[in-house]
User: Fold this.
Amino acid sequence: MSDHRTLPLSAAVIDYAVAHGTDVDDEVARELRAETQGLGPVAGMQIGVDQGQLLTLLARLVDASRALEIGTFTGYSALCIARGLAPGGTLTCCDVHEDWTAIARRAWQRAGVADRIDLRLGPALETVRALPDEPHLDLVFIDADKEGYADYWAELVPRVRAGGLLLADNVLWSGRVADPSDDDPKTVALRRFNDLVASDHRVDALILPAFDGLTIARRRDDG
Assistant:
């Protein structure tokens, strides 16, 4: 429908855009990204600087004091969110990999945000279900196992306050969600998740066709 509005994004264009946004990529962040690249192909799970800028901005826009992240990896996205928190704010991070999050812990310490981040190792659903049931979260970022997205959504929407944001990464899955012939379990799970969000009257939502597809949903005041 909108091929004429699609901008080919070369590395030069992305670098230009990043250079004309708020700088979140200081020495600590650059060192963290470099260390992550050294892990090999798995480094592809790390978000880019442009998405990091967006996370910091969104946290500031909602004046986030209580945030939660599912899928922390080596901690770059958490670093960006933590830097956008209101004074005294905290970010709860859920992950199951001790080795990767050890890299994150070192970076957070160097960046001076370790006191804002509560890392909880273990199944994310267990961590979320142990949180208070009432709406109290200002910002949520889901970037973990794709088959779990729908379950995370079900637990998190009731815990996000009116006006709060729920973000989910990789929801376009390199465009595979739009290919009906792709029956890979991750693709199918993301397709179902996207349908779930689109039909959820508790939120106003969109899929931003940038990065690998980012769902941005606002909890409605009457939701």
Remarks:
- The longest helix spans residues 98-111.
- Strands lie at 66-70, 90-95, 117-121, 137-142, 160-169, 203-208, 214-219.
